[in-house]
Specification:
420 residues; alpha/beta; FAD/NAD(P)-binding domain; D-Amino Acid Oxidase, Chain A, domain 2; 7-stranded mixed beta sheet; 6-stranded mixed beta sheet; 12 helices; binds flavin-adenine dinucleotide
Length: 420
């Protein structure tokens, strides 16, 4: 079941996964001398500031994604990059610990998914999702600013937008997890499980460095982590934990004693949303002439969802071009990759559970902090504890590798040495 010249491909959703799908598909098609008609259905206007034009995320791009973009010839324009981030400051009550970028090749940056906060001052900022969509269009995709109401299964998939009907030879589902998937029940698709996050944007205080992310833990009750990310004139606050609401941002700032540093008042809030994050893989996410990618399929747990979207779409589109669009092709060439991501997330769950366990014990915390401080005297490549934390916080190393490093006898011995 191979794609042929003139085949119609519909990509539902023009977030990162949708645009990456078009970029990979059109690049590979060109290499195989194949001409496809690619349409991206995306109703969101990324030029609009605030939640209306934004796919709601903290907006850190990992080094593995930046390398991936380079490999397909996509260069981020300077106005899309809001900050070059070099340091994570781990805040544990009154103590802070700085984790620096392990080496220059592991660059991470912050971006806006839309055009900046809802109540921003000045003209709209450059949107990362908008930039990617333009890239896809420049490569030959057509962008249709329409919401897909339903995709039915007839001879092949048929997209209905309410206004028009589009029979397809191949459908790519890239709708993420923050809206109802438009597939009819005939596809059997079961979306991933999700957890709620809370976010807001405030003005960045003048004293706040533009290259440091701050990560807070423990308070208020139920918080897994809260991060403050500089983005040009603004600071993004993103929380993950149990029972979050829009008010959680205020509770977090109060619980972490950040009111004064941030000069926070209820009027400081410039945006605010409570988006969902994926915490499990989807089920039955491919079939004859269709495949789901990005968050709609499987993503890395908590970190680097955009990087995950790049690599799942690359594997799915390579399958479509090189092996065809049958269920068997996706089962053989795409599903194993997705299973690897899901397996890696289990190591991520274990790492975050261990981290939470350490956070609850002042004694373990002290041992671990001593170990981090002690390794500062060693050459950078021997900063194992810092590397594990950098990898967990930025998502630029597989969880499995970090887990093995964390539970390596040498790392354990090193911790034992700091038992004082
Ligand atoms: C609070 C928070 C913070 C995060 N921080 C980071 C981070 O710092 N770095 C990182 O890499 N990842 C982060 N993520 C994860 C990241 O946001 C996702 O992994 C990423 O957006 C997935 O891309 P996607 O294209 O699959 O889905 P989305 O970005 O959700 O895009 C889906 C697109 O589909 C469109 N769509 C939906 N339904 C339809 C329809 N019926 N018809 C047409 N179009 C439709 C939507 O308008 C949207 O544009 C974060 C997530 C959350 C919730």
């Amino acid at each position: 079941m191979r794609l042929k010249n003139g085949d119609r491909v519909g990509i539902v959703g023009g977030g990162p996964a949708g645009s990456f799908a078009a970029i990979h598909l059109l690049t590979l098609a060109r290499q195989h001398d194949l001409r496809l008609q690619v349409t991206i259905f995306e109703p969101r206007d990324f030029e609009r500031p605030g939640p209306g034009g934004c796919n709601r995320c903290a907006g850190i791009l990992s080094s593995r994604l930046l390398r991936g973009l380079k490999s397909v010839g996509v260069q981020l324009p300077p106005d899309v990059v809001q900050a070059d981030l070099h340091t994570y400051v781990i805040c544990l009550g009154s103590e802070t610990l700085e984790i620096h970028q392990p080496d220059p090749t592991r660059q991470i940056v912050s971006i806006y998914r839309g055009s900046g906060p809802r109540l921003q001052q000045g003209s709209p900022l450059a949107s990362f999702d908008g930039f990617l969509l333009q890239k896809a269009v420049a490569l030959g995709a057509q962008h249709l600013p329409q919401r897909v109401r339903i995709v039915r299964r007839e001879e092949g998939p048929v997209v209905h937008t309410g206004r028009d009907r589009f029979p397809l030879d191949f459908l790519v589902l890239a709708t993420g997890i923050n809206s109802r998937p438009p597939l009819s029940t005939a596809f059997g698709y079961r979306p991933p499980k999700t957890a709620l996050m809370a976010q807001d944007e405030i003005l960045r205080p003048a004293s706040w460095p533009n290259d440091q992310v701050r990560a807070h833990f423990r308070e208020p009750n139920g918080l897994l982590f809260g991060v403050l990310i500089p983005k040009g004139d603004y600071l993004n606050i993103s929380l993950l934990g149990k029972g979050l609401t829009r008010d959680s941002i205020e509770d977090f700032i109060a619980a972490q004693n950040l009111n004064q540093t941030l000069q926070f008042t209820p009027e400081s809030s410039l945006c605010g949303c409570t988006p969902r994050i994926s915490v499990s893989p989807a089920r039955r996410f491919y079939g004859k002439r269709w495949v789901a990618v990005g968050d709609a399929a499987v993503t890395r747990l908590y970190k680097d969802g955009i990087g995950s979207a790049f690599f799942t779409t690359q594997t799915a589109m390579r399958t479509a071009i090189e092996h065809g669009v049958s269920r068997q092709a996706f089962q053989l060439w795409y599903a194993p990759y997705c299973r690897r991501v899901a397996r890696d997330n289990r190591y991520g769950q274990l790492l975050f559970a261990s981290w939470n366990f350490i956070l609850k014990s002042p004694r373990l915390m002290r041992i671990w902090m001593n170990a981090i401080q002690a390794e500062q005297a060693l050459p950078p490549r021997e900063h194992i504890h810092a590397r594990i934390l950098w990898g967990m916080l930025t998502g630029d190393e597989p969880y499995r590798r970090l887990f093995r490093l964390a539970f390596h006898p040498k790392t354990m011995l090193d911790l034992a040495k700091n038992l004082k």
